[in-house]
Amino acid sequence: MAAAAGPFRQFPTGGEYSEAMQNTHLCFRHPELKGAVPELTKIHTPKAISGAFASVFSLTSAASGRRYAVKCFTRHIPDQEMRYEAISKQLVTLDSTALSQPWKMGFEYLPDAILVGAERYPVLKMEWVEAVTLSAWLDTHHHDSAAVARLADRFSELAADLVAHDIAHGDLQHGNLLVADDGTLRLVDYDGMYVPALSGREGTERGHRNYQSPARGDEDFDSHMDRFSAWVIFLALKAVAADARLWAQLHERHGEYLLLAEDDFKNPSASSRFPALLAHRDQTVRDLADQVRSLSWQPLDALPPLPSAPVSAPTLPLASAAPHSADNGSTLPSWMSGHLPPVSSAPPAEDPDAPPTSFTGRRALDVLAAVLLPITVFVPAILCAAGVLASLLLPLPLTATAFLTWAAHRTRSETRLLRKHVRALTKRRWQATHPDKATNELHRQRMEFDSAETKRKAELTRAQQELLDRHQREVAAADSGKIKKWAAIDRKVSSLDGELRAAMDQALATERATFVQEELRKARIATARLQGIGEKLKGSLAMYGISAAADFTGIRLISTNSGGYASTTALIVKTGGREVNIKGIGAAKARTLDAWRQAQISAAQSRCTIRLSSARRQSITSDFERRRAQHSDERRKAEADAATQRAQAQQRLQDGRVRLSAQDAAALRLAQQQRQAFAQRALQIQESQADLDSVNASLAEARRIRRALSHARYLRFALTGH
Amino acid sequence: MAYTAEISRTNPTCIVFLVDQSTSMTDPIGGEVPQKKADVVADAINRLLTELSVKCAKEEGVRDYFHVAVVGYGATVGSAFAGALTGRDLVPLSEVADNPARVDDRTKKVPDGAGGLVEMSVKFPLWMDPVAHGGTPMNRALKYAETLVAGWTERYPASFPPIVINLTDGESTDGDPVEAANSITAHATADGTALLFNLHVSASGGSPVSFPDSDADLPDSHASTLFQMSSPLPSHMRSYAASQGQKVSETTRGFVYNADITSVVQFLDIGTRATELR
Ligand SMILES: Nc1ncnc2c1ncn2[C@@H]1O[C@H](COP(=O)(O)OP(=O)(O)OP(=O)(O)O)[C@@H](O)[C@H]1O
Predict the structure, then answer these.
(1) Cβ pair A183, A147 in contact under 8 A
(2) Lowest-confidence range among A53-62, A294-303, B186-195?
(3) What is the DSSP track for A344-388?
(4) How much is the ipTM here?
(5) Does the beta carbon of A49 sit less than 6 angstroms from any atom of ligand 1?
(6) Chain A residues close to B193, C-beta within 8 Å
(7) Answer CATH for A131-323 from 1.10.510.10, 3.30.9.10, 1.10.390.10, 3.20.20.190
(8) A405 FRET partner, CA 20 to 30 A, in A327, A586, B50, B134?
């Protein structure tokens, strides 16, 4: 950005100015503008004439009845007030009577002049210039060749006025050059004007794109900056003056240019408009067109000013000047030499396809042809006349020479170039005259592409949905797996409490049984009082190893019946299971013994106060705690596993999405490129049609050149070098 | 280079406005004097059309640098023009300028220059009225715009690419709009791909945002989605925004949150400048 001196300001829009202008007694305080009547649109709102930097309103003063153009700025322009002051000061010094025509417009820069919203902004109050824009004027006057020719002179005079005072407008173009009723020019829009006092600053704009040299940059802000646009306008006016049809042929209705536009300057050899001017039958038009073409890429300060003396129609000095293509290769008319400094860095402005229009520079072959020609014509004739040669051999050398010159002519670079040129032109004409085929083909391809795109998008949606479905399935699977595992674990956990109780009971029962057993061991038979069992029997019992209650577990009575006598045998069941029959101990005594033992058991059990020791309890409980902890670990693990699975699924989804959207983005980029290519092709087809005129003109020109390069001309050239 | 085509009468471009007309647009937004979102959006459109007309006005009248469509989406999707233009899609700007549905007289308080305020009456042309009824079929609206854009690129292959400006409260009811948005910007002229800009009017709060380069400061996912859908500003628009004091970067997008979108019109570089000043 240019170093914006002065504080930056946001400016109102054209619409906001237009709204403010609905109440001029409120928005203005300048006596001439307060209450002034604006020109209105069809819908009765103030009518704007807008450009890139401002909107201009026509206001008729209520006080004086004078009409003004009030320019309201829509963009911040660095140092605007200072610039206008400098411009104003400079213009005031120009003596109106010394100017070629009254092109100078009076203006006054009024800071804080208009209230929009809550703030005041500057305006440029100008006298209303009663005139029409150059393009509108040409629309109605291009048939009046004399008037157009006069205007061309007026224009070159105006340009000369500017040069004489070291001023440059910066944006010479059809909207800023107005034509008054008397055919003189008015210059408006001084926003970008250069005056010597502004030397060293940068420009505020680069001018209308269809009038500028491709070489113009921001730093081009000096008295040379109008040079290129001046040539462009001058060429247009001169050309239309010479041939009114050029206006219809090259100027598209409503086109924001005169005859040539930005593309023509940027790439003259590809221009579809230049050829009609370069190959025009009028020498002035050709020369000026060639001049503009060759100036296209040159630095602005290397450009010559317009020819200062008005070139008076109809006899143009250039028309009689040097031939179009001089032998030394220069294409400049002689009056231009001296205006044009030597150029080194101009990019190729030459049209590489255009063939030369005459033969230059004889080759050895041409010289040979030239030497052979008289020899083969005259020598045999003389020899023949002298009777040395049989007349029937006469055609032989003639044919050979004819062939030689034919070959020499054909191999000349000029004729080769011409043939190539004509072939290319013929092809272009074919394209231009058969646009339907090309258009249909393009349309078909477009449709095909569109339906492929639609399919691709449907496929994309399907793939996205599939991705999502799979993701949901995976997440669901992870969750249900976890829930199953959890249920199994929970079952185990809830049975643990019962098992713990059972284990405790078991441990307690074991301890009690041990106590009772101990007591039984202590219950000695020897000291017991047992009905009917005396010392002797006790001794017998002891002999059988039964001396304490612990030594037996019960009795068994077996009834036998032998010989009509029922008798009962008593067996004592020893600990370990052996049964013994002890003499003297019958059923009654056995019962006594067993009852004693039972009594001992009951007594022992009732004496038993045992509870589980806390150590034992601890050991049992801790075992269960361990198992419980193990279960909750399993639970956590199941959760973690599920989480991992979910995360993996998420990652897969994510990856899939990234992949799909990358694919989509790539496909979209391709689609954009493809569509751009389609548009370019449509354009080419369109252009080739618009081109038809210039192709035809070029073909006509090529035919003309063909005559200039004919065999006869070649023979003359071979002989004379011209 | 893309986005350098001259916008001219011989090479015009098209602007398609998409206007959210769903029921949710009856919700109020704004501080002291809350306004219905539908009113905010209708005002924005009417102002944009006025600005465009003024911008393209020349001595002989408004020039057809643009063809303009205003498409509403709510209970239905279709032209939102009222009055003489009812039912029409792309209309040449000169016709738009001459045919507002009506011109309202609105009163405005302005400073009287002596420290006080005075009431002033201004004419306000209207092309559409606020409507709020139905869902938010943003996908369908974007598809509608796409057909207009596709037709345009075929008809004017050399033009500055079509511009679609979507004004909405952001809550699409017929699915994620991102893809439909991408389909619009996949169309192109020889000068570049179509542009999609979004104006988000929302009651979600947060400060207004104009042409941000990330969605970090946006208050909700709707705003983020709209931001993602919006085209990056072409370089000349960026440098214009920068010259107007906006902070911009390579990734600045055509997105505005609860702020004025009329500045978009200022971005449109009509025709004739050789190059933007940098
Ligand atoms: N003093 C005037 N009298 C009559 N018409 C004027 C006057 N000044 C400007 N105009 C008209 O207003 C148009 C725009 O004015 P001007 O060129 O000054 O604005 P701008 O914003 O600088 O435009 P541009 O884009 O052409 O530089 C002109 O083309 C011309 O038709």
Answers:
(1) yes
(2) A294-303
(3) S-----S-TTSPPSS--S--HHHHHHHHHHHHHHHHHHHHHHTTS
(4) 0.93
(5) yes
(6) 672, 675-676
(7) 1.10.510.10
(8) A327
